[in-house]
Automatic annotation (TrEMBL):
Subcellular location: Peroxisome membrane
Species for this entry: Bombus terrestris
Lineage: Eukaryota, Metazoa, Ecdysozoa, Arthropoda, Hexapoda
A GO biological-process term: protein import into peroxisome matrix
Any one GO CC term of the record: peroxisomal membrane
Name this polypeptide is given: RING-type E3 ubiquitin transferase
Amino acid sequence: MEIKKRIRKLKIASQAEILRSHQRDDDFIKYLRDKIVDVLQILERRIGLLPLIHSDIPFKLIYFFFTSGMGNQTLGEEYTGIVQANLDAQKVPSIYARVLAVILECLGEKALIRLLKRLELSVNHPHSKLTPAAAIFLNSFITKMYTMIPIFILVHKGLFYMFGHYYSLGKRIARVDYAKVYGHRPTDTISWGLKLLGIATLAQCALKIWQSRNSESPFNKYLTVTEKHSNLMCQLCLEKVPTTTTPCGHLFCWFCLTDWLNTKPQCPLCREHVVPTRIVHIMNL
């Protein structure tokens, strides 16, 4: 009850404080991941747990379980003097809301992409009872969703930079925001800089939407790129035949590209942002 009264007197945490909090949490998660990988290498068990090692998600879930999941502040929240709060209801969010926010933040996009892939397989199944017109419509819808999901997430990030409410879509759904508890606030110039970044982010989203409307189908582009470059080698290892393409159309072998994206979510050639779940294995088409 005392905590709830304190939150009513507090203002929402600024964008800069929330960003610094998440950056510090991400640094600790990377440190935790490196230490666990070192232990697994010593135990000579890395090969069997390779998929686990190449993803930060299990380590994020472990970290947030022992912090937010148990009702505690994360290291980043302690560092910046903020706490999770439902500011609309003027109360501390429940443990269930915190856990839901973490799960959606870590797994939400992957789950949605997987759902779209299952829908795509069902639509194009040889025994599907859909009419040709319905199949064409659903395939067009799925293709647009593959393009729009990352853009929608980017739009939400731009709105966060501008207004400071809800760091992620998962936190918005769970109604988990941040309130300032202690420490000095950053100057207004930092907030205005982030608002400018938000405007630039929204402009980038508008440009991506315009490009997607004026470009050909991604799957046709993948096939065209494959035909033109079928005799080339992977641009990273220069040894294997490229079997995987990024949304921007550059080809690499599967293992080189996934290893690269797990370290840096950018295309190795053009530096365009690439979500690992959106790369396509050409051999499966």
